[in-house]
């Protein structure tokens, strides 16, 4: 059974032995293995402690945290974390289903890093929502918690792009629109039940002022075209190995903190994925242009050197968040950034191909949304030059 929960223990697990990455020569029916029971989503309770509090908590203190006043705000950094190591934040600045004494919706700033070593929340009235307020709040977090201003801030609401971008750029921070804010998204889901629903101003059934976009998919940019694709699967142990290779070898892509997410899947469970092949696989997968050119220029093909010299936005710079099989349109959808959706590939719609796509989507759902995208030079290759571990989550309730 696959379960997904935040893991407070943060215990690192060993790297599994190598497993070859294999693919069929063309899209083909795959015997997916499904967990026997429904997935469970168990989120850990986040800290409501201040920076001055000890990181050691007794069971009594944990119980007290659950009963804290939901109107209180949070300012916390893990005492065991090096502040200088927190260089990327995840941020949400949006209204909540809560009314203040004026009968107006309360806004809230929620900030964390991907390891949850930094956690910060603050409520705001709706008449001070602007880039100046946000910029001042970012500086306050830095000063209050003793952490440097981040190099990057990820956010997932397109409607806040103007305010967030202006605040960040005035502070020399790179704003990144991305749905790869998984720690933040899961935290907001947890806060809905643990905090917002218990707030005295909570309005049941209230809809967010800033809904998430799901636009019609557009045509794929030419530089992202692959030549062939196939539905594939890897044992969970092999998926972990591919993620580990992102840190140990020069491979493009992005992983997930599987320990923090608390994903509990048997090592032999098959994780669904999509592999895309291209004779220019390295150029298709990467965007770290100058670093790669300086290190590997002698080994690059002429075609790869051309694409690097053009500085086109390849996969590695797109903040890939999910791949979806759209059986109605008989195509694969690639979701990147906040709300950009591309028609990644198409196929002839038949009962057989529809069943294949439905089976792939069902396997993804059975694994709690976990899936992957791999870029290879050819389908018979044992290695991939790009690997993205993806988690398809529903939007938060706020």
UniProtKB/TrEMBL annotation:
Limits of the RNA-binding protein Tab2-like N-terminal domain: 89-191
Gene Ontology molecular-function annotations: RNA binding
Annotated stretches, region: Disordered: 53-80
All residue ranges annotated as the RNA-binding protein Tab2/Atab2 C-terminal domain in the record: 209-286, 314-390
Biased composition (Acidic residues): 61-72
Source organism superkingdom: Eukaryota
InterPro entries: Tab2-like, Tab2-like_C, Tab2-like_N
Pfam name, any one: Tab2-like_C
Name this protein carries in UniProt: PI-PLC Y-box domain-containing protein
Annotated source species: Lupinus angustifolius
């Amino acid at each position: 059974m696959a379960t997904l929960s935040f893991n407070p223990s943060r215990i690192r697990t060993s790297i599994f032995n190598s497993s070859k990455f294999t693919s069929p020569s063309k899209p083909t029916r795959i015997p997916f293995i499904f967990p026997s029971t429904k997935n469970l989503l168990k989120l850990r309770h986040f800290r409501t402690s201040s920076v001055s509090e000890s990181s050691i908590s007794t069971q009594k203190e944990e119980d007290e945290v659950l009963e804290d006043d939901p109107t209180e705000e949070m300012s916390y950094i893990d005492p065991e974390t090096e502040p200088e190591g927190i260089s990327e934040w995840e941020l949400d600045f949006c209204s909540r289903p809560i009314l203040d004494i004026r009968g107006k919706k309360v806004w809230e700033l929620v900030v964390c890093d991907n390891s949850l070593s930094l956690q910060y929340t603050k409520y705001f009235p709706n008449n001070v929502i602007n880039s100046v307020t946000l910029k001042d709040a970012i500086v306050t977090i830095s000063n209050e918690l003793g952490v440097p201003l981040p190099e990057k801030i990820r956010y997932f609401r397109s409607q806040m792009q103007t305010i967030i971008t202006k605040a960040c750029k005035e502070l020399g921070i790179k704003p990144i629109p991305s749905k790869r804010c998984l720690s933040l998204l899961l935290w907001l889901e947890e806060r809905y039940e643990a905090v917002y629903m218990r707030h005295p101003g909570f309005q049941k059934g209230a809809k967010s002022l800033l809904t998430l976009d799901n636009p019609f998919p557009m045509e794929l940019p030419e530089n992202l075209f692959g030549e062939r694709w196939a539905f594939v699967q890897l044992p969970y142990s092999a998926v972990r190995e591919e993620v580990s290779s992102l840190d140990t070898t020069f491979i493009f892509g992005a992983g997930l903190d599987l320990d923090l997410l608390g994903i509990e899947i048997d090592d032999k469970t098959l994780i669904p994925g999509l592999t895309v092949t291209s004779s220019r696989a390295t150029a298709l997968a990467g965007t770290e242009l100058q670093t790669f050119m300086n290190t590997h220029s002698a080994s690059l093909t002429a075609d790869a050197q051309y694409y690097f010299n053009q500085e086109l936005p390849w996969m590695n710079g797109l903040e890939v968040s999910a791949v979806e099989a759209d059986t109605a349109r008989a195509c694969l959808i690639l979701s990147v950034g906040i709300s950009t959706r591309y028609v990644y590939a198409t196929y002839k719609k038949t009962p057989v191909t529809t069943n294949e796509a439905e089976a792939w989507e069902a396997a993804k759902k059975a694994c709690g949304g976990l899936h992957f995208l791999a870029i290879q030079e050819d389908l018979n290759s044992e290695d991939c030059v790009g690997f993205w571990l993806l988690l398809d989550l529903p939007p938060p309730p706020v």
